[in-house]
Amino acid sequence: MQSLAERITDLGWHIQFWMKDDDTVKMSELLNRLACPIVFDHLGGIPLSIGIRHPAFKIMRSLLQRGKAWVKLSGVYHLSLKGPPYYSDSLSLAKAFIETAPENVIWGSDWPHPSLYSAGKPMPNDAELIELLAKQASNQDLFHKILVDNPARLYDFK
């Protein structure tokens, strides 16, 4: 992975991880050494019941503060114990990431939700997921930054 990161850095690419919270802790030294940016998908897989108290949050926060990482606010239905329509247990963790580095947070719908479809579970309402982002972001400027400005920088939209 380190070799790959070195090769893709000059291309402006990043490595995106969808991994378990404990894997972030196990891989923290490697994550800190990677030359390219890192994107943590699905809120870094941190259990919402533990949130900012989890060691993975501290690692991710450090990477965010140094501009080495991004967090994608997506897939809350994988983590939520409260469930739809509001997934309210995701608010404090999402807000903590936004407060840490509002310029390095992006959003994803996770549509078409293939893991849920293949498991035969009900699909989330994507409009409710956008409403959740509005609560997580707390104001229109952050909402715009997360949906428009930040992805434009990460993906180098012209």
UniProtKB/TrEMBL annotation:
<dbReference type="Pfam" id="PF04909">
    <property type="entry name" value="Amidohydro_2"/>
</dbReference>
<dbReference type="GO" id="GO:0016787">
    <property type="term" value="F:hydrolase activity"/>
</dbReference>
<dbReference type="InterPro" id="IPR052358">
    <property type="entry name" value="Aro_Compnd_Degr_Hydrolases"/>
</dbReference>
<feature type="domain" description="Amidohydrolase-related">
    <location>
        <begin position="4"/>
        <end position="157"/>
    </location>
</feature>
<dbReference type="InterPro" id="IPR032466">
    <property type="entry name" value="Metal_Hydrolase"/>
</dbReference>
<protein>
    <recommendedName>
        <fullName>Amidohydrolase-related domain-containing protein</fullName>
    </recommendedName>
</protein>
<dbReference type="InterPro" id="IPR006680">
    <property type="entry name" value="Amidohydro-rel"/>
</dbReference>
